[in-house]
Amino acid sequence: MTASGPFVVEARGLVKRFGADTVVDRIDLRVPRGGCFGLLGPNGAGKTTTLRMILGHSPPSAGTLTVLGEAMPAAGRRVRARIGVVSQDDNLDPDFSVMENLEVYASYFPHRRHRPLRPFLESLLEFVSLGDRAGYRIQALSGGMRRRLVIARALVNEPRLLILDEPTTGLDPQIRHLIWSRLRALTERGTTVLLTTHYMEEAERLCDRVAIIDHGRILAEDAPRALVAREVEPSVVEVRAGERPPPPELARQARVEAVDGVWHCHTSEPGAVLASLGDYPELEYLHRPANLEDVFLRLTGRELRD
Ligand SMILES: Nc1ncnc2c1ncn2[C@@H]1O[C@H](COP(=O)(O)OP(=O)(O)OP(=O)(O)O)[C@@H](O)[C@H]1O
Ligand SMILES: [Mg+2]
Fold first, then answer.
1. Distance from residue 178's CA to the centre of ligand 1 (Å)
2. Does 244 fall in a domain?
3. CA–CA distances in Å: residue 162 to residues 87, 185, 288
4. How many domains, in total, are found in the chain?
5. Is the pTM of this model over 0.85?
6. Is the beta carbon of 46 within 6 A of some atom in ligand 1?
7. 124: in domain
8. Whole-angstrom distance, CA of residue 233 vs CA of residue 270
9. pLDDT truncated to tens, each residue of the chain (306 aa)?
10. From CA 150, how far away is CA 170, in angstroms rounded?
């Protein structure tokens, strides 16, 4: 058992096939110890499948996988005891109260019972701003409260690695900001966070590194800012143009994508683009710095998934 290496997850040539479908296709992934790592990808990209292999719930079809220094899936039970998991669905027990859900979960980790349990569980509820809800039934909780409870539950075994599959999908901005601040607090205490998300803003705010995955392959991996610097032009001018086609001179100054009545002009020369737009005073435009969403769309394309 070596848990002290620089990577909490190391995958080499990881493959998952379901019948004839290869949904994870020879990925190499190294998640550094400490900080927050994001796995980004469109629907069906293979994110959950990858997490399920990391958790030992799904055996790889090929490749090698080490989690917290142990070979998976062989060490699955031992490794899972040291990981916190927030899965894509909430899977709370509706017959129990908030506190009872934590107590039942804690009973799976008797060896962690090195201090009085109840105050510890109360502190976890406080941590996710549910301190006043301990006696509530699960049905009485909003979606945001449930998700926070699942996060509290994932912390019951005091994991060094917390894995979250789309932690803020379907939640309002207030809850999303609260969850971001809690995840940041955890990384500041030394917990490694590995999450998946479709939200590029979430990834940009939280993640030290991200891997962009599509069709089971990693297309790029780096710090969000480094990806923006490397993969796309630094400026974007979005022009509301309706049906009108972009004028040819614009294509000399920018990489122009016309999507749903908006020209997305990706450029290193925003001044030239804006000067050209001076000929069209009736058009509304927005000039902004490039972001991770531009990288994501550049690498994964704009066609719909599902
Ligand atoms: N048990 C399974 N049997 C067959 N196919 C599966 C199974 N689990 C996942 N898949 C397929 O594998 C592909 C990747 O699914 P996965 O759930 O990993 O995607 P994802 O990136 O998590 O997507 P989302 O963002 O929608 O959650 C999909 O095409 C899915 O239909
Ligand atoms: Mg998924």
1. 29
2. yes
3. 11, 12, 34
4. 1
5. yes
6. yes
7. no
8. 10
9. 445 689 999 999 999 999 999 999 999 999 999 999 999 999 999 999 999 999 999 999 999 999 999 999 999 999 999 999 999 888 899 999 999 999 999 999 876 666 789 999 999 999 999 999 999 999 999 999 999 999 999 999 999 999 999 999 999 999 999 999 999 999 999 999 999 999 999 999 999 999 999 999 999 999 999 999 999 999 999 999 988 888 999 999 999 999 899 999 999 999 999 999 998 999 999 999 999 999 999 999 988 876
10. 15
